[in-house]
Amino acid sequence: MDECIEKLKGLEWGVSDPKYITALMLFAENAEKKRIERIKAKESEETGHAYTQDLIHGCPIQCFDMMRLSQDAFVLLCNHFTQRNWLQRSRTISVEEKMAIFLHVIGHNERFRAVKERFHHSIQTIHQCFHEVLKAMICFAREIIVPTSSNTTRNPSERHRRLKNIFPRALGALDGTLVHAVVPVDEQTRYRGRGKDKYYFCDAAYTNTRGFMAPTRNTRYWLADFQRNRALTKEERFNHAHAQLRNIIERAYGVLKMRFPILKCMAPYPFPVQRDIVIACVAVHNFIKKYDIQDDLFTNFEQNTMVTPNMEGGGSEGQNIQGIEWGSEAVKYMTTLRDQIANQLLSNGSR
Fold first, then answer.
1. d(CA 26, CA 49)
2. What residues make up the domain containing 301?
Protein backbone atom coordinates (compact mmCIF):
# COMPACT_ATOMS: atom_id res chain seq x y z
CA MET A 1 0.00 0.00 0.00
CA ASP A 2 2.87 2.37 0.84
CA GLU A 3 4.33 1.86 -2.64
CA CYS A 4 0.97 2.81 -4.17
CA ILE A 5 0.85 6.04 -2.14
CA GLU A 6 4.33 6.97 -3.35
CA LYS A 7 3.28 6.41 -6.96
CA LEU A 8 0.21 8.60 -6.44
CA LYS A 9 2.39 11.38 -5.04
CA GLY A 10 4.56 11.17 -8.13
CA LEU A 11 1.50 11.99 -10.25
CA GLU A 12 1.19 15.29 -8.36
CA TRP A 13 -2.57 15.02 -7.97
CA GLY A 14 -4.04 16.92 -5.10
CA VAL A 15 -5.55 14.97 -2.22
CA SER A 16 -8.94 16.42 -3.10
CA ASP A 17 -8.64 15.53 -6.78
CA PRO A 18 -11.38 12.99 -7.73
CA LYS A 19 -8.82 10.97 -9.67
CA TYR A 20 -6.60 10.77 -6.57
CA ILE A 21 -9.52 9.66 -4.37
CA THR A 22 -10.69 7.04 -6.91
CA ALA A 23 -7.19 5.60 -7.34
CA LEU A 24 -6.69 5.49 -3.56
CA MET A 25 -9.97 3.60 -3.08
CA LEU A 26 -9.03 1.05 -5.75
CA PHE A 27 -5.62 0.49 -4.20
CA ALA A 28 -7.18 0.06 -0.76
CA GLU A 29 -9.83 -2.34 -2.05
CA ASN A 30 -7.24 -4.48 -3.82
CA ALA A 31 -4.99 -4.55 -0.75
CA GLU A 32 -7.89 -5.61 1.49
CA LYS A 33 -8.89 -8.34 -0.97
CA LYS A 34 -5.38 -9.78 -0.96
CA ARG A 35 -5.27 -9.63 2.84
CA ILE A 36 -8.53 -11.59 3.10
CA GLU A 37 -7.29 -14.17 0.60
CA ARG A 38 -4.13 -14.69 2.67
CA ILE A 39 -6.23 -15.13 5.82
CA LYS A 40 -8.52 -17.62 4.10
CA ALA A 41 -5.54 -19.57 2.77
CA LYS A 42 -4.05 -19.69 6.26
CA GLU A 43 -7.38 -20.77 7.76
CA SER A 44 -7.83 -23.47 5.11
CA GLU A 45 -4.48 -25.02 5.93
CA GLU A 46 -5.31 -25.08 9.63
CA THR A 47 -8.89 -26.24 9.10
CA GLY A 48 -8.01 -29.28 7.02
CA HIS A 49 -5.32 -30.28 9.49
CA ALA A 50 -7.58 -29.63 12.50
CA TYR A 51 -10.40 -31.67 10.98
CA THR A 52 -8.08 -34.62 10.37
CA GLN A 53 -6.68 -34.43 13.90
CA ASP A 54 -10.19 -34.37 15.29
CA LEU A 55 -10.99 -37.56 13.37
CA ILE A 56 -7.87 -39.26 14.75
CA HIS A 57 -8.19 -38.13 18.37
CA GLY A 58 -11.87 -37.33 18.70
CA CYS A 59 -14.99 -39.48 18.65
CA PRO A 60 -14.20 -43.01 17.35
CA ILE A 61 -17.64 -43.28 15.76
CA GLN A 62 -17.08 -40.11 13.74
CA CYS A 63 -13.77 -41.45 12.46
CA PHE A 64 -15.34 -44.71 11.33
CA ASP A 65 -18.34 -42.96 9.78
CA MET A 66 -16.22 -40.49 7.82
CA MET A 67 -13.19 -42.60 6.85
CA ARG A 68 -14.76 -46.10 6.97
CA LEU A 69 -12.11 -47.53 9.29
CA SER A 70 -11.23 -47.19 12.96
CA GLN A 71 -8.81 -44.68 14.43
CA ASP A 72 -6.26 -47.44 15.12
CA ALA A 73 -6.53 -48.72 11.57
CA PHE A 74 -6.16 -45.21 10.13
CA VAL A 75 -3.04 -44.44 12.17
CA LEU A 76 -1.47 -47.80 11.30
CA LEU A 77 -2.26 -47.27 7.62
CA CYS A 78 -0.68 -43.80 7.57
CA ASN A 79 2.39 -45.04 9.45
CA HIS A 80 2.73 -47.93 7.00
CA PHE A 81 2.73 -45.56 4.01
CA THR A 82 5.18 -43.23 5.73
CA GLN A 83 7.59 -46.02 6.67
CA ARG A 84 7.52 -47.39 3.13
CA ASN A 85 8.08 -43.84 1.80
CA TRP A 86 5.00 -44.16 -0.41
CA LEU A 87 3.63 -40.84 0.85
CA GLN A 88 5.44 -37.75 2.09
CA ARG A 89 4.26 -34.67 3.90
CA SER A 90 4.07 -31.58 1.69
CA ARG A 91 4.65 -28.03 2.84
CA THR A 92 1.06 -27.56 4.00
CA ILE A 93 -0.56 -31.02 4.04
CA SER A 94 0.39 -33.98 6.23
CA VAL A 95 0.30 -37.63 5.21
CA GLU A 96 -2.69 -38.10 7.51
CA GLU A 97 -4.66 -35.34 5.81
CA LYS A 98 -3.84 -36.67 2.34
CA MET A 99 -5.05 -40.12 3.38
CA ALA A 100 -8.18 -38.64 4.95
CA ILE A 101 -8.99 -36.79 1.70
CA PHE A 102 -8.59 -40.01 -0.27
CA LEU A 103 -10.72 -42.07 2.13
CA HIS A 104 -13.47 -39.45 2.08
CA VAL A 105 -13.70 -39.80 -1.70
CA ILE A 106 -13.80 -43.61 -1.84
CA GLY A 107 -15.70 -43.99 1.44
CA HIS A 108 -18.60 -41.77 0.41
CA ASN A 109 -18.25 -41.55 -3.36
CA GLU A 110 -17.85 -37.80 -2.94
CA ARG A 111 -16.85 -35.48 -5.74
CA PHE A 112 -13.73 -33.38 -5.35
CA ARG A 113 -15.87 -30.24 -4.99
CA ALA A 114 -17.60 -31.61 -1.89
CA VAL A 115 -14.30 -32.75 -0.35
CA LYS A 116 -12.84 -29.31 -1.12
CA GLU A 117 -15.46 -27.70 1.12
CA ARG A 118 -14.75 -30.10 3.98
CA PHE A 119 -10.96 -29.72 3.93
CA HIS A 120 -10.88 -26.09 2.71
CA HIS A 121 -8.42 -26.69 -0.09
CA SER A 122 -8.73 -25.90 -3.77
CA ILE A 123 -10.10 -28.50 -6.17
CA GLN A 124 -6.63 -28.69 -7.71
CA THR A 125 -5.13 -29.56 -4.32
CA ILE A 126 -7.80 -32.19 -3.63
CA HIS A 127 -7.23 -33.67 -7.09
CA GLN A 128 -3.47 -33.80 -6.54
CA CYS A 129 -3.78 -35.41 -3.08
CA PHE A 130 -6.27 -38.00 -4.30
CA HIS A 131 -4.13 -39.15 -7.21
CA GLU A 132 -0.96 -39.08 -5.12
CA VAL A 133 -2.52 -41.47 -2.60
CA LEU A 134 -4.10 -43.58 -5.36
CA LYS A 135 -0.68 -44.06 -6.98
CA ALA A 136 0.77 -45.07 -3.60
CA MET A 137 -2.14 -47.49 -3.10
CA ILE A 138 -1.00 -49.51 -6.10
CA CYS A 139 2.38 -50.07 -4.43
CA PHE A 140 0.50 -50.98 -1.27
CA ALA A 141 -1.73 -53.43 -3.16
CA ARG A 142 1.25 -55.37 -4.50
CA GLU A 143 2.22 -56.05 -0.92
CA ILE A 144 -1.18 -56.66 0.67
CA ILE A 145 -3.25 -58.35 -2.08
CA VAL A 146 -1.64 -61.77 -2.41
CA PRO A 147 -3.01 -65.31 -2.85
CA THR A 148 -3.73 -67.10 0.41
CA SER A 149 -3.46 -70.75 1.34
CA SER A 150 -4.70 -72.81 4.25
CA ASN A 151 -1.31 -72.24 5.88
CA THR A 152 -1.30 -68.44 5.62
CA THR A 153 -4.96 -67.53 6.19
CA ARG A 154 -5.61 -66.24 9.68
CA ASN A 155 -8.14 -68.43 11.53
CA PRO A 156 -9.89 -69.74 8.42
CA SER A 157 -13.07 -71.67 8.96
CA GLU A 158 -12.98 -75.34 8.04
CA ARG A 159 -16.24 -74.94 6.14
CA HIS A 160 -14.81 -72.10 4.04
CA ARG A 161 -11.74 -74.17 3.15
CA ARG A 162 -13.88 -77.17 2.25
CA LEU A 163 -16.10 -75.13 -0.05
CA LYS A 164 -13.08 -73.51 -1.69
CA ASN A 165 -11.68 -76.96 -2.43
CA ILE A 166 -15.00 -78.11 -3.87
CA PHE A 167 -15.20 -75.14 -6.25
CA PRO A 168 -11.53 -74.24 -6.94
CA ARG A 169 -12.28 -72.46 -10.24
CA ALA A 170 -14.99 -70.14 -8.92
CA LEU A 171 -14.35 -66.44 -9.55
CA GLY A 172 -17.30 -64.96 -7.69
CA ALA A 173 -21.04 -64.50 -7.97
CA LEU A 174 -23.26 -62.48 -10.29
CA ASP A 175 -25.79 -59.74 -9.64
CA GLY A 176 -25.31 -57.60 -6.51
CA THR A 177 -21.79 -58.81 -5.79
CA LEU A 178 -20.27 -57.31 -8.92
CA VAL A 179 -18.46 -53.98 -8.71
CA HIS A 180 -19.93 -51.14 -10.74
CA ALA A 181 -17.74 -49.62 -13.42
CA VAL A 182 -18.25 -47.21 -16.31
CA VAL A 183 -16.67 -48.81 -19.39
CA PRO A 184 -17.09 -47.78 -23.04
CA VAL A 185 -19.39 -50.20 -24.85
CA ASP A 186 -16.75 -51.27 -27.35
CA GLU A 187 -14.39 -52.29 -24.52
CA GLN A 188 -16.81 -54.06 -22.17
CA THR A 189 -16.19 -57.64 -23.31
CA ARG A 190 -12.46 -57.56 -22.56
CA TYR A 191 -13.20 -56.65 -18.92
CA ARG A 192 -15.58 -59.48 -18.13
CA GLY A 193 -12.91 -61.06 -15.91
CA ARG A 194 -13.34 -64.74 -16.80
CA GLY A 195 -10.21 -66.83 -17.07
CA LYS A 196 -9.86 -70.17 -18.80
CA ASP A 197 -12.28 -72.70 -17.30
CA LYS A 198 -13.25 -70.24 -14.55
CA TYR A 199 -16.86 -69.49 -13.69
CA TYR A 200 -19.22 -67.32 -11.71
CA PHE A 201 -21.94 -68.61 -9.41
CA CYS A 202 -25.44 -67.64 -10.47
CA ASP A 203 -28.99 -68.59 -9.58
CA ALA A 204 -31.31 -70.90 -11.51
CA ALA A 205 -32.58 -68.04 -13.68
CA TYR A 206 -29.30 -68.20 -15.62
CA THR A 207 -28.34 -70.88 -18.10
CA ASN A 208 -25.76 -73.33 -16.77
CA THR A 209 -23.12 -72.67 -19.41
CA ARG A 210 -19.37 -72.23 -19.68
CA GLY A 211 -18.34 -69.45 -17.31
CA PHE A 212 -21.59 -69.54 -15.31
CA MET A 213 -22.45 -72.31 -12.86
CA ALA A 214 -26.12 -72.47 -11.88
CA PRO A 215 -27.75 -74.80 -9.34
CA THR A 216 -29.74 -77.84 -10.37
CA ARG A 217 -33.30 -76.83 -11.17
CA ASN A 218 -36.42 -78.29 -9.56
CA THR A 219 -34.32 -79.11 -6.48
CA ARG A 220 -34.31 -77.20 -3.20
CA TYR A 221 -31.57 -74.60 -3.18
CA TRP A 222 -31.79 -71.73 -0.70
CA LEU A 223 -30.03 -72.25 2.63
CA ALA A 224 -33.29 -71.94 4.54
CA ASP A 225 -34.51 -75.03 2.67
CA PHE A 226 -31.83 -77.13 4.41
CA GLN A 227 -32.23 -75.87 7.97
CA ARG A 228 -34.46 -78.74 9.09
CA ASN A 229 -33.66 -81.48 6.60
CA ARG A 230 -30.11 -82.15 5.44
CA ALA A 231 -29.24 -82.67 1.80
CA LEU A 232 -29.67 -86.28 0.66
CA THR A 233 -29.44 -86.67 -3.11
CA LYS A 234 -26.39 -85.64 -5.09
CA GLU A 235 -28.38 -82.77 -6.63
CA GLU A 236 -29.34 -81.52 -3.18
CA ARG A 237 -25.78 -81.84 -1.93
CA PHE A 238 -24.54 -79.84 -4.89
CA ASN A 239 -27.19 -77.14 -4.47
CA HIS A 240 -26.48 -76.90 -0.75
CA ALA A 241 -22.73 -76.44 -1.27
CA HIS A 242 -23.39 -74.01 -4.15
CA ALA A 243 -25.72 -71.94 -1.94
CA GLN A 244 -23.27 -71.94 0.97
CA LEU A 245 -20.32 -70.66 -1.03
CA ARG A 246 -22.45 -68.16 -2.93
CA ASN A 247 -23.71 -66.83 0.41
CA ILE A 248 -20.12 -66.40 1.64
CA ILE A 249 -19.14 -64.58 -1.55
CA GLU A 250 -22.17 -62.30 -1.38
CA ARG A 251 -21.47 -61.38 2.23
CA ALA A 252 -17.76 -60.84 1.51
CA TYR A 253 -18.57 -58.40 -1.28
CA GLY A 254 -21.36 -56.97 0.84
CA VAL A 255 -18.99 -55.94 3.63
CA LEU A 256 -16.54 -54.48 1.09
CA LYS A 257 -19.28 -52.38 -0.52
CA MET A 258 -20.62 -51.30 2.87
CA ARG A 259 -17.17 -49.95 3.67
CA PHE A 260 -16.64 -48.26 0.30
CA PRO A 261 -19.94 -47.22 -1.36
CA ILE A 262 -18.02 -45.96 -4.40
CA LEU A 263 -18.00 -49.61 -5.51
CA LYS A 264 -21.81 -49.51 -5.80
CA CYS A 265 -21.86 -46.57 -8.20
CA MET A 266 -18.48 -45.62 -9.58
CA ALA A 267 -18.01 -42.03 -10.67
CA PRO A 268 -17.11 -41.62 -14.36
CA TYR A 269 -13.35 -41.41 -13.89
CA PRO A 270 -11.14 -42.67 -16.75
CA PHE A 271 -11.28 -46.46 -16.65
CA PRO A 272 -7.67 -46.93 -15.41
CA VAL A 273 -8.56 -44.72 -12.42
CA GLN A 274 -11.73 -46.76 -11.76
CA ARG A 275 -9.65 -49.93 -11.83
CA ASP A 276 -7.10 -48.51 -9.40
CA ILE A 277 -9.86 -47.32 -7.04
CA VAL A 278 -11.22 -50.88 -6.81
CA ILE A 279 -7.70 -52.18 -6.12
CA ALA A 280 -7.21 -49.52 -3.43
CA CYS A 281 -10.51 -50.41 -1.72
CA VAL A 282 -9.59 -54.11 -1.59
CA ALA A 283 -6.08 -53.29 -0.36
CA VAL A 284 -7.33 -51.20 2.58
CA HIS A 285 -9.94 -53.87 3.31
CA ASN A 286 -7.26 -56.60 3.34
CA PHE A 287 -4.98 -54.48 5.52
CA ILE A 288 -7.60 -54.28 8.26
CA LYS A 289 -8.15 -58.03 8.08
CA LYS A 290 -4.47 -58.96 7.87
CA TYR A 291 -3.53 -57.03 11.00
CA ASP A 292 -6.58 -58.31 12.88
CA ILE A 293 -7.80 -54.79 13.70
CA GLN A 294 -11.11 -54.64 15.55
CA ASP A 295 -13.74 -53.77 12.95
CA ASP A 296 -17.52 -53.92 13.29
CA LEU A 297 -18.09 -54.74 9.62
CA PHE A 298 -15.80 -57.78 9.77
CA THR A 299 -17.32 -58.84 13.10
CA ASN A 300 -20.82 -58.84 11.62
CA PHE A 301 -19.57 -60.79 8.61
CA GLU A 302 -17.83 -63.45 10.70
CA GLN A 303 -20.82 -63.83 13.02
CA ASN A 304 -23.07 -64.22 9.98
CA THR A 305 -25.28 -61.33 11.17
CA MET A 306 -24.70 -59.08 8.17
CA VAL A 307 -27.79 -58.64 6.01
CA THR A 308 -27.25 -58.88 2.25
CA PRO A 309 -29.81 -58.36 -0.52
CA ASN A 310 -31.79 -61.37 -1.68
CA MET A 311 -30.29 -62.32 -5.03
CA GLU A 312 -33.04 -64.75 -5.98
CA GLY A 313 -34.29 -64.20 -9.49
CA GLY A 314 -31.41 -61.90 -10.37
CA GLY A 315 -30.90 -63.21 -13.89
CA SER A 316 -33.03 -64.17 -16.85
CA GLU A 317 -32.97 -67.30 -18.96
CA GLY A 318 -31.33 -66.82 -22.34
CA GLN A 319 -30.36 -63.20 -21.72
CA ASN A 320 -28.15 -61.63 -24.38
CA ILE A 321 -24.79 -60.88 -22.75
CA GLN A 322 -21.69 -60.35 -24.88
CA GLY A 323 -18.87 -62.80 -24.29
CA ILE A 324 -21.03 -65.63 -22.92
CA GLU A 325 -21.03 -68.96 -24.74
CA TRP A 326 -24.60 -70.15 -25.19
CA GLY A 327 -23.98 -73.05 -27.57
CA SER A 328 -24.76 -76.68 -26.78
CA GLU A 329 -21.08 -77.55 -26.28
CA ALA A 330 -20.68 -74.81 -23.67
CA VAL A 331 -23.82 -75.98 -21.84
CA LYS A 332 -22.68 -79.60 -21.98
CA TYR A 333 -19.27 -78.67 -20.60
CA MET A 334 -20.70 -76.95 -17.53
CA THR A 335 -23.34 -79.64 -16.98
CA THR A 336 -20.61 -82.29 -16.96
CA LEU A 337 -18.53 -80.27 -14.52
CA ARG A 338 -21.53 -79.78 -12.25
CA ASP A 339 -22.27 -83.54 -12.28
CA GLN A 340 -18.63 -84.30 -11.42
CA ILE A 341 -18.79 -82.02 -8.39
CA ALA A 342 -22.16 -83.46 -7.33
CA ASN A 343 -20.82 -87.03 -7.54
CA GLN A 344 -17.75 -86.03 -5.54
CA LEU A 345 -19.96 -84.54 -2.83
CA LEU A 346 -22.12 -87.65 -2.70
CA SER A 347 -19.05 -89.87 -2.47
CA ASN A 348 -17.51 -87.81 0.31
CA GLY A 349 -20.75 -87.70 2.19
CA SER A 350 -21.19 -91.49 2.11
CA ARG A 351 -17.88 -92.17 3.96
1. 35
2. 158-349
